[in-house]
Amino acid sequence: MTEREFIDRLKVWFSLANFRKYRLVVECVVAALYFIVASVAVSDFSGVLGLLSVLLLASTIVLYRIQPFLSLAIGALGALTMLASSYLSNLGSFAVYAPLLLVFFGTAAYGKPTTRWTGLVGTFVASFMIFGSYGVSFSGLLIYFFALAFFALAWVAGMLVYVNRGRMRAESGEIVATAKLGEVKHEVTLEQERNKVARDVHDIVAHSLAVVIAQADGARYASKDVPAPVVEALENIAATARAALTDVRVLLGELRHNQEAGPQPGMNDLDALIRGFRDSGLQVEWNSYGTAGPLSDPAALAVYRIVQEGLTNALRHGERATPVELVFDWGAASLTVIVTNALPQGATILANTAGHGIPGMRERATLAGGELEASDGTNGRFRVRATVPFARASAAAVAS
After folding, report:
1. DSSP label at 136?
2. Which helix (H) or strand (E) holds 385?
3. Which residue would you say has higher pLDDT here, 385 or 145?
4. pLDDT at 323 over 80
5. N or C: which end of the chain has fewer CB within 10 A?
6. CA-to-CA separations, 136 to 89, 132, 144, in angstroms, rounded
7. Nearest Cα to Cα of residue 71 among 84, 81, 56, 49
8. Cα 81 to chain centroid, rounded
9. Which DSSP symbol is given to 89?
10. Residue 67, SS3?
11. Which ranges of the chain does DSSP label H, i.e. alpha helix?
12. Residue 385 bridge partners (DSSP)
């Protein structure tokens, strides 16, 4: 090992981080050394009381940081025991009270407010009790204030540590708050960018599709002598544009609400959805009338979410003893979904205005090109009725 490596290792051994890691071990070693040295000093003058007081004062070296109030109490008891042993009256050294410096430091640095201010009062009391025997002479007052200055400086040093630790906690909290603020700003920026994209898509694509639909319909109805293939092509153009416009509206909703990515449920997932509600104890009577028509993916997703929210509301707020009626009415150009459930006596329907519940269902139906109504039915029943158009309308439906 070279001299440079040895010096670097010594720096690591005696670093602040290493000291904090083994601080309790160091304190125990210092307490043991103090007990050995002080015991030798007091054994010839004070006997058993002297040894007991040294043991009590040595224990404060270990306790001043982890138990400040207990350390203060034991330090006071040790000082009284030392005075009772008449060690100082035999011209003993005042250095045996050195652990009291750590006691007063610990009360200020690590104690609760009550312990902290009790420690400050203790500096005056300890100085008077230990050095008051010198009387009111000049030398006695000088010794008293000298001892008080030492004890008070230890307490002030502890206060500085306490204040600095609070400042560091405040700085750490500020750093965390700044990081969270940055995350919030990032989310706000993303949300603003999504809204900007939604506006751009609406202004460019949605308006263009609306123009295509208007031109195709106008060309079909304005020309009477147009060949049948051309009329059919115009019908396909108008129907496709309408379906694309519905998809664009759903895309705008996803951009605005930041919905989850990945595959979305549809009509094929309704059986599993209703089975799950039935397993949860909700009685669901599902009836379907008419011939099923083609639904686009956004429209199927809207139907799924409307059924899901309607049954969830019935499960949470409805009367469990009465079955929930779920009706699918397939018309010529649209699907009508009706969810009807009984209400408990005196119950009211709660609509969440933050975009969930009934307002959320209404918005999903609107984005799919349909509409939704939610109102009290007859005999204390609540009904949700949504209409969602098919992906492509027939010529007669488009004309109507």
Report:
1. T
2. strand 381-389
3. 385
4. yes
5. N
6. 17, 8, 10
7. 56
8. 53
9. G
10. coil
11. 3-13, 16-21, 23-63, 68-84, 99-110, 113-131, 138-201, 207-222, 228-257, 270-279, 297-317, 357-367, 395-399
12. 338, 373
User: DSSP secondary-structure letter at 292?
Assistant: -
Give the model confidence (pLDDT) of 1-26 as tens digits.
676 776 767 666 666 666 677 888 88
pLDDT at 263: 65
Contacts of 42 (CB under 8 A, 6+ apart): 50, 51, 53, 54, 82, 85, 87, 92, 96
* Contacts for 202 with CB less than 8 Å, ≥ 6 apart: 248, 252
Q: Reduce the DSSP state of residue 241 to 3 states and report it.
A: helix
Q: What percent of the chain has pLDDT over 90?
A: 26
10 Å CB burial of residue 116 (0-12, 13-18, 19+) is: buried
Amino acid code (one letter) for 348: T
Amino acid identity at 321: A
Q: How far apart are CA 159 and CA 105, in angstroms?
A: 8
Tokens 């094929």 locate to: 268
Strand partners, 284: 324
Measured CA distances, 29 to 14, 51, 98 (Å): 15, 18, 16
Q: Which residue is it, tokens 């139907």?
A: 303
Q: Around 316, how many Cα atoms within 13 Å sit in the side-chain half-sphere?
A: 11
Residue with tokens 């115009």: 234
Asked if residues 87 and 45 have their Cβ atoms less than 8 Å apart, the reply is yes
